[in-house]
Design goal:
heterodimer; A: 245 residues; alpha/beta; seven-stranded mixed β-sheet; two-stranded antiparallel ribbon; 8 helices; 9 strands; 31% helix; B: 820 residues; four-stranded antiparallel β-sheet; 10% strand
Chain lengths: 245, 820
């Protein structure tokens, strides 16, 4: 393995991370580091749209720690670090690592934050967030996915993530308000209860598109005065206007 | 004798039996094509369905090639070869579908996973088998009866026409699995007719009876579960059913789609596209409504909490017109109707194309607590939206075009090839004609980034207003956007300051952004749902400037308005942009690619390569003696390829024209396609008489002249006739359509059998090859016609067809001194 700065930082941090307990023998360590490098490269390519050359080092470190291959079906483990979405069953996918990194970066997570996720899916996004915030509450409609996410996160030692099976439309009032909300389940609209449960100053991210094709990210910010603004972030560096525009 | 060249067989089938079998088989094949399009649209997505069927149809060309090479042994056993091939189609048609849908092909993953290309190839192969089987029988029949090519082609075309018509009815009357079995039955009966009609040795007879019984019994014995389409797990219906206790509460099959209503008591369905982030309430618990397993929408009850309907961009027009008399185009599950009622609309006319939708909505609402929305103030009409407006003499204060397609389909560009006659300049002119003097036309579409169809919509409205003599269209246009939808309002009169104030209050309250209104400045735009630059406002300003073309030429997507001749509203991709998007595919460029368009190009390339191979390969094996009288092979290719391309060009161009006039997509199949095929069949049957009339002249020259004169005349005549008869009742318009289709169809049916007959006389061994060339060219033709129409319109498609008929007439296959 040829260590890079990111890879090295990731490996060092592994020792402090429950998920990295077996890092020294991890046959996927190099693949994971390569994935992180690729995500960093993608971020550089899209700097114009995301407004920065590099994603937050904390986010990149988290991406370097979470063993993505354990969040995909066993038969796809060898593809777990490809920078692409993968099917996880029940018509759902684990998102492309670059999109996960970008979404997490847009959320600007802080160590004391409490996060809510609508649509646990593979629980990879929840695990990445769990590396960066105090608590993650996540709801999944599909019961078998919720059950496997609970088992997986327990086995990997993510004890700051709570998974619930059921309807996430009304958020999780017992643990609200949230600093961070992620809506990964395809939705025709942003549930008003979730906006209500977002703390003033909080951020919400929603990927827009179809399975396997995330087209843009919707970033919603609640100002201190309670008003809400949103921003469309296109991961693609694509300038629509030419010539004088 | 089965015909010339088939003398080896001693116990020949009845010629009448063969002709009837050809008609049955053709009916089955065309019915199967239409049915497969429906089934694959449910399992995958309709644009993939289109490609898969197009490539699978190359099985026809392959069969032509095989018969060309193996004609002697096959003709020697004509009865068995035809019978078994027909039975093969009968059993293969349902079985191939069952097998195809069990393959793990995931269309959505194709850009990420190369293994999917392998599965796609497997799909082509499996689905081409029934077409190959049917074509084997048909090619053999044409080889055996080349001298009676006209009469045979008549049966072929009339059968195909009736098959198309029959399938439209079957789709309404039978579950899809039974419709598949019915197609199979056509093949089994065709095989039975040839095998069992006429004498046969006892042992052979028993074998034939057993084969036919197996052919009849097998499709019936296949389990329903195999033949029922199972939507991809990534489609809305499949996802909805993953919720605990979710279940289908109503279901309807019809030629316009497979509708399912889903109730999900534990995780209720809630659909409010682009709801404002400032909305105080979300939608109530609804019933999900899916078309072909996708395109999710919702059934909403009248008695529910409907505050959410005030908080979508589609509520815009109710801030411009007070308590309007409204026409809602696309009633669907009722959201737009309920929005009109909630905003105090005095009366609502709600138009819905698909009667099954209204049936399901009524049934679901009758059984639940939601409450019916039909009543005294809401009148529903089952009709095509544009056609309803065109034929009405009423005027409305508001015409609201509902958002009927799904976001994911729109975002992925799968509609790129859909012809939409709702969003053309001509359609907008019709809608504006139906507005009261202070009326407003409102159109809501999904928001696409970078801005594409919203800007196109604005330009379409501008042109429609200009066509009505409006000098300052910008004063009569308003557009707003949320984070997921955009709504356009078009007024017949300039919007007044009071209306602008009301609009601004509405967008402020719900944090929607202003894209355009009279008097807008750049700082008004891009405030709530921010983009890096105010691209929508700038685009709108450019589109409404004196020189929108300059902006459009420099823009990376096509923005010019769609017209009836180029009705591809959803196709905005420019060729020059494609490499950039593909290069950026891993960074989010992929969804901008417009899958419909990519698939069209992919289909065209695959079909062309395969067609050329299928045409050329048999030449390596065709070691037939070259008689002095045989035409050069390049002439055979030129003649039959021209006809194959031209016939479908005319068919597709006229189907589009007549669909506008008849005002219902089903009429395009049931009347135009079936009518054209049946008339062509009548023409084919008349070639001998026509040849006698031609005297010493080449009949093909006269036929081509007939097609060119009639086709050319129609180019000028049809718009005039259609406008004059537009307001007539349906029966009258159908009669006009059939009267117009008759002459052109009659001529269209002649060139192919004339060519086959001439070839049969001079080089009979080339007949199956020629038949295959025609089949291959037909497959290429369907994609090529759409490709040409996308770029330059349907009129040039028709023009190309007329040129191709002229080419065929220039290089006839009939020897100059041949007896007529």
């Amino acid at each position: 393995m040829r260590p890079t700065t990111v890879g090295l930082v990731g490996l060092l941090l592994f020792t402090a991370c429950p998920a990295a307990a077996e890092a020294t023998d991890d046959p996927y360590a190099e693949a994971r580091a390569a994935m992180v490098r690729e995500v960093a490269l993608d971020a550089e390519r899209t700097a114009e749209w995301i407004g920065k050359e590099k994603l937050s080092p904390r986010v990149m470190e988290a991406m370097g720690r979470v063993p993505r291959h354990l969040f995909v079906p066993p038969e796809l483990q060898d593809f777990g670090y490809l920078n692409r979405p993968l099917p996880i069953g029940y018509g759902q996918t684990i998102s492309q690592p670059y999109i996960v990194a970008l979404m997490t970066d847009l959320l600007a997570p802080e160590p004391d934050d409490v996060a809510f996720e609508l649509g646990t899916g593979s629980s990879y996004q929840a695990a990445v967030l769990a590396e960066l915030v105090a608590e993650v509450y996540t709801v999944e409609i599909v019961q078998p996915l919720a059950a496997s996410a609970t088992d997986r996160l327990d086995a990997l030692g993510f004890d700051n993530v709570t998974v619930r099976a059921g309807d996430g439309y009304f958020g999780w009032p017992e643990h609200a308000p949230f600093d961070i909300i992620v809506v990964t389940a395809a939705a025709s609209h942003v549930p008003p209860p979730l906006i209500a449960q977002l703390k003033p100053g909080g951020r919400m991210v929603i990927p827009v598109g179809s399975p396997f094709l995330t087209q843009q990210l919707l970033l919603i910010e609640k100002r201190k005065d309670g008003t809400v603004t949103s921003r469309q972030v296109l991961p693609v560096i694509f300038v629509p206007l030419t010539g004088g525009h | 004798m089965t015909g010339e060249g088939a003398g080896e067989e001693t116990q020949s089938p009845s010629r009448l039996g063969v002709f009837i079998a050809v008609a049955l088989l053709s009916a089955g094949v065309l019915g199967y094509e239409i049915l497969l399009a429906r089934l694959l649209a449910i399992v995958h997505w309709h644009h993939f369905a289109y490609m898969i069927i197009a490539v699978a149809l190359l099985g026809f060309g392959a069969a032509g090639s095989l018969v060309a090479v193996l004609q002697r042994p096959l003709l020697g056993r004509f009865r068995w070869a035809f019978g078994i091939a027909a039975l093969g189609f009968g059993v293969g048609a349902p079985l191939a579908f069952a097998l195809a849908q069990s393959l793990p092909f995931n269309a959505l993953e194709i850009a990420w996973d190369r293994a999917q290309l392998g599965w796609l190839f497997a799909l082509y192969l499996v689905l081409s088998l029934p077409f190959f089987s049917a074509a084997l029988a048909l090619a053999l029949a044409f080889r055996a009866h080349a001298a009676r090519a006209g009469a045979l082609y008549r049966m072929d075309l009339v059968g195909a026409g009736l098959g198309a018509l029959g399938m439209v009815f079957l789709l309404d009357a039978l579950p899809l699995a039974d419709a598949l079995r019915a197609v199979g039955l056509c093949g089994a009966i065709a095989g039975g007719v040839v095998l069992l009609w006429g004498s046969m040795r006892r042992l052979a007879g028993v074998s034939a009876v057993l084969a036919v019984c197996a052919g009849l019994a097998l499709p019936a014995a296949l389990p329903d579960h195999w033949l029922r389409p199972h939507p991809s797990p990534y489609k809305g219906l499949s996802l909805a059913l993953t919720a605990p206790d979710a279940r289908i509460v109503a279901e309807r099959h019809g030629p316009l789609g497979w509708l399912t209503a889903v109730e999900s008591p534990r995780v209720p369905f809630r659909h409010a596209p682009g709801l404002s982030l400032m909305a105080s309430a979300g939608p109530p618990e609804q019933i999900g409504l899916f078309t072909d397993g996708g395109a999710p929408s919702a059934i909403t009850g009248a008695d529910d909490d409907l505050r959410y309907l005030e908080a979508e961009t589609a509520a815009l027009p109710y801030h411009l017109v007070d308590r309007p008399r409204a026409l809602v185009l696309g009633a669907g599950g009722g959201a737009e109707v309920l929005r009109a009622l909630r905003h105090g609309a005095g009366a609502v006319d709600a138009v819905e194309l698909n009667p099954d939708v209204l049936d399901i909505v009524r049934g679901v609402l009758a059984g639940g607590p939601g409450g019916q929305w039909e009543g005294e103030s809401v009148r529903t009409h089952v009709a095509d939206a544009r056609s309803f407006a065109a034929r009405s003499s009423a005027h409305w204060d508001l015409i609201q075009i509902a958002l009927v397609d799904s976001f994911s389909a729109a975002a992925a560009g799968v509609h790129a090839l859909d012809e939409s006659l709702l969003y053309t300049v001509e359609a907008f002119e019709i809608f504006l004609d139906r507005l009261a003097p202070d009326g407003v036309l409102a159109v809501t579409r999904w928001l696409k980034l970078p801005p594409r169809d919203s800007l196109r919509l604005l330009w379409t409205a501008r042109q429609a207003l200009e066509a009505r003599g409006v000098a300052d269209p910008a004063s009569r246009l308003i557009m707003i956007r949320g984070w997921k939808t955009a709504t356009l309002a078009v007024g017949l009169r300039p919007f007044a300051p009071g209306q602008i104030a009301s609009l601004r209050a509405f967008t402020h309250d719900y944090a929607f952004d202003l894209v355009w209104h009279p008097g807008i400045v750049e700082s008004d735009a891009n405030r709530h749902n921010r983009l890096a630059e105010p691209e929508f406002y700038r685009g709108a300003s450019a589109i409404l400037s004196p020189d929108p073309e300059d902006f459009a030429n420099r823009y990376k997507f096509t923005l010019e308005p769609a017209t009836d001749d180029r009705p591809f509203f959803f196709h905005t991709l420019k060729w020059s942009t494609l490499p950039e998007l593909l290069a950026l595919r891993a960074q989010g460029g992929l969804p901008l690619v417009e899958w419909g368009f990519v698939i069209l190009v992919a289909t065209l390339v695959q079909a062309s390569i395969a067609a050329v191979m299928l045409i050329l390969l048999p030449l390596l094996a065709l070691h037939t003696r070259r008689t002095p009288d045989a035409p050069a092979r390049w002439r055979v290719v030129l003649f039959f390829a021209s006809l194959g391309l031209a016939f479908l060009f005319v068919e597709i161009a006229f189907m589009q024209r007549f669909a506008v006039f008849l005002g219902h997509p089903l009429y395009a199949i049931a009347v135009v396609l079936a009518g054209l095929l049946v008339f062509a069949g009548l023409g084919a049957g008349a070639i001998d008489r026509f040849a006698r009339l031609a005297g010493r002249r080449q009949p093909i020259v006269l036929v081509a002249a007939g097609i060119i004169v009639v086709g050319g005349t129609y180019l000028g005549l049809l718009p005039w006739v259609f406008e004059a008869a537009q307001g007539w009742p349906t029966a009258g318009r159908l009669a006009v359509a059939l009267a117009l289709l008759g002459p052109i169809g009659f001529f269209l049916g002649m060139p192919f059998p004339l060519g086959l007959k001439a070839l049969g006389a001079r080089a009979p061994s080339l007949v199956p090859w020629a038949w295959g060339i025609n089949a291959c060219a037909s497959v290429v033709s369907a994609s090529l016609a759409t490709f040409i129409a996308l770029h330059v319109g349907f009129t040039p498609v028709l023009g190309c067809a007329l040129v191709l008929y002229a080419v065929a007439a220039t290089f006839p296959l009939q020897a100059a001194d041949a007896p007529r």
